[in-house]
Specification:
The complex is a heterodimer of chains A (about 250) and B (about 260).
Chain A (H helix, E strand, L loop, with lengths): L3 H5 L2 E2 L2 E2 L11 E5 L7 E7 L2 E12 L12 E8 L14 H14 L11 E11 L4 H15 L9 E8 L2 E4 L3 H6 L2 E7 L5 E10 L1 H47 L1
Parallel strand pairs in A: 6-7
Antiparallel strand pairs in A: 1-2, 3-4, 4-5, 5-7, 8-9, 8-10, 10-11
Helix pairs in contact in A: 2-3, 3-5
Chain B lengths: L1 H18 L15 E5 L7 E7 L2 E12 L10 E7 L15 H16 L9 E3 L3 E13 L4 H14 L2 E2 L10 E2 L7 E8 L2 E4 L3 H6 L2 E7 L5 E7 L6 H22 L3
The chains are: A alpha+beta (about 250), B alpha+beta (about 260).
């Protein structure tokens, strides 16, 4: 589909169209605790992606027949705003959203200590306000921080990003332009220890290219993890000093 | 609740078997169930295939009709994949619109066909911007005894390879075989503790921590992957599954899908 000339035009002097190196992430901006009503929340920008995640729970399950006696269930709703893409998207979930919601939930569930909260639910809602390739990974990153913000016990955070193949080269964190004309896309999510919880792939890659893509995405996830960790530490280390007295009092009262 | 308790007992049983490298039905960990494939059973469809993978049965029908192209690909045909998990196929399936399992199944089958560029979509253009052939791939699960991904993917490509574009019916010239350029084959494995099991049955699927489907093309490239179930998987295991998936796919292609 892509001619040789077009392939070459994805890079200029070894840099990508937005000036990044092949193994460079887009700029990331994270804010934690951005919603008043939610138990935990996070706003995240990864390049031109803008997503917001909210966590409610653990709370009572409705409808009740969904509840599990031995653990909390986890629900994840990924939703794109109709104005988030070039051509207006019909509001509400489509088949893609259902699939993204499923794999995103399965990316986060393994680290959530669901057995602490039998018969309850942890609801995760992700709204994509602007999309530029990589919304599912941005959503997972934001959701992971929002879970921590909500105080949900977790084994670890989850960090997520994609690698892709563009103009014959494996690159980290493809943007929309690269994704549209690229040859492959491999989104992953993982724990800081490198256990993978999300893995999808479409396009065409040799085994060696797949390995390169996974290594690259892994390195990206590690960078994202540091950012997620920092934003949480920044927020809560300072709260610790301010509120530890209040908490001590509260505990005594109980 | 009994489902949960049963799952724990079953999990324990399967886990202890697995420690000895065994499975409940006696297969080796990487052994597939017997596969049978019949094509062209549905005369009213433009292409069809019935796949039996052990006791799992999947019928895939392909219908090809003229319709409007998407505005961003005015000169290309369209693929639409759908999967029906009808209640006839399992006590766990309910009537109603497709749930997320059905949607995921359809989208992974679609990914294999689309990303391998198995169908020559340019060749399915009738009048650019106005009329193209729309290929509907409908996966109908008849009996779910596990590994619907592989059975459905095999059914889809087999149905496509034997499909005819019904041009005469629409006054668009003579009928001709649907142009198929590649043969994507899906291989699914589940991870359970430290073991990897290929072609899981329903019990194995229900107790597995992680499931990975790898779709490969005729030249040994990978054209689609999907990890599902809420569990972890290591890079080493991914590579092992990819290696075996490539070998398996080659065997299946040679046995069933020779062009």
């Amino acid at each position: 589909m892509i001619g040789m000339d077009e392939k070459l035009s994805f890079f200029k002097d070894g840099l990508r169209l937005d000036g990044r190196l092949p193994d460079e992430l887009r700029p990331i901006k994270v804010e934690v605790g951005v919603l008043a009503r939610a138990d935990g929340s996070c706003y995240m920008e990864m390049g031109d992606n803008k997503v917001i995640a909210a966590v409610y729970g653990p709370r009572e399950v409705h409808p009740r027949h969904l509840q599990e006696v031995t653990r909390a269930i986890v629900r994840y709703r990924y939703n794109m705003a109709s104005f988030s893409v070039e051509e207006r998207k019909r509001p509400g979930p489509d088949r893609r959203s259902y699939e993204v919601s499923k794999v995103s939930r399965e990316a986060l569930e393994p680290v959530i200590l669901t057995s602490y909260f039998p018969r309850s639910v942890v609801d995760i809602f992700v709204e994509v306000l602007q999309a530029d390739a990589g919304t599912r990974t941005a959503g997972i990153n934001a959701a992971s921080v929002a879970l921590a913000d909500a105080g949900i016990p977790m084994k670890s955070l989850i960090s997520s990003c994609a690698a892709g193949k563009v103009g014959g080269e494996i690159v980290l964190d493809p943007m929309k332009l690269e994704d549209n004309f690229g040859e492959a896309d491999v989104p992953i999510a993982m724990t800081p220890a490198g256990e993978i919880t999300l893995l999808q792939m479409d396009g065409r890659l040799s085994k060696e290219e797949l390995k390169r893509a996974l290594e690259l995405a892994k390195a990206g996830c590690q960078q994202i993890y540091e950012i997620q960790r920092k934003v949480l530490v920044d927020r809560y280390s300072h709260m610790n000093e301010m509120e530890s007295c209040d908490e001590a009092v509260a505990e005594e009262e109980i | 609740m009994s489902d949960g308790v049963m799952a724990e007992i079953r999990k324990d049983y399967l886990y202890h078997l697995m420690l000895k490298g065994e499975r409940a039905d006696g297969r080796a960990l990487d052994e597939y169930r017997e596969i049978s494939l019949d094509t062209g059973l549905i005369r009213k469809a433009d292409g069809s295939a019935l796949v039996r993978l052990g006791k799992t049965q999947v019928m895939v029908g392909v219908k090809i009709q003229p319709g409007e192209p998407f505005s961003d690909t005015p000169d290309k045909g369209v693929i639409i994949t759908n999967a029906e998990l009808v209640p006839l196929a399992s006590p766990n399936f309910e009537p109603g619109p497709p749930n997320e399992v059905g949607i995921e199944l359809a989208r992974v089958v679609d990914r294999g066909v689309r990303e391998s560029r198995a169908i020559d979509l340019e060749a399915l253009c009738i009048t650019p911007g106005e009329k193209v052939w729309i290929v509907f791939i409908d996966v109908h699960i008849l009996d779910d005894c596990g590994n619907l991904m592989d059975a459905s993917s095999l059914g889809a490509i087999a149905a496509l390879m034997t499909a005819t574009v019904p041009a005469a019916q629409y006054g668009l010239g003579d009928d001709y075989p649907l142009p198929v350029k590649d043969v994507p084959v899906a291989t699914t494995a589940v991870e359970f503790g430290d073991s990897i099991i290929f072609d899981p049955d329903t019990d194995e699927e229900s107790v597995a921590d992680t499931k990975l489907t790898v779709i490969t093309t005729a030249d040994g490239s990978i054209c689609g992957m999907q990890k599902s179930r809420p569990g972890f998987i290591s890079q080493d295991h991914i590579y092992r599954i990819v290696d075996i998936a490539c070998e398996r796919a080659k065997e299946i292609r040679e046995k069933f899908l020779e062009v």
